[in-house]
Amino acid sequence: xxxxxxxxxxxxxxxxxxxxxxxxxxxxxxxxxxxxxxxxxxxxxxxxxxxxxxxxxxxxxxxxxxxxxxxxxxxxxxxxxxxxxxxxxxxxxxxx
Length: 96
Known about the structure:
Shape: elongated
Structural class: alpha+beta
Number of strands: 5
Distance between the termini: 52 Å
Strand content: 15-25%
Helix content: 10-25%
Largest sheet: 5 strands, antiparallel
Order of helices and strands: EEHEEEH
Low-confidence stretches: none
Mean pLDDT: 76
Radius of gyration: 25 Å
Strand order of the largest sheet: 1-2-4-3-5
């Protein structure tokens, strides 16, 4: 990311390079207490949100794998003698 020269010393602007990932830019902006902003065609990191620009919401969409909990022992006492159903690897289709 390259800093840009601005006339007002209280305003900081950074232009991300094309190789920077948006999520990494957003993390850096958050660490520097700045905003990721856009005007519809250009994305910048700035310490303020100027008129005509909007804050860009960036979320981490990386799927988090939840720990698998085995509940078979919990229902074993209630349903003793009944075999436990196998875990399905594919979702069921309703109405198919």
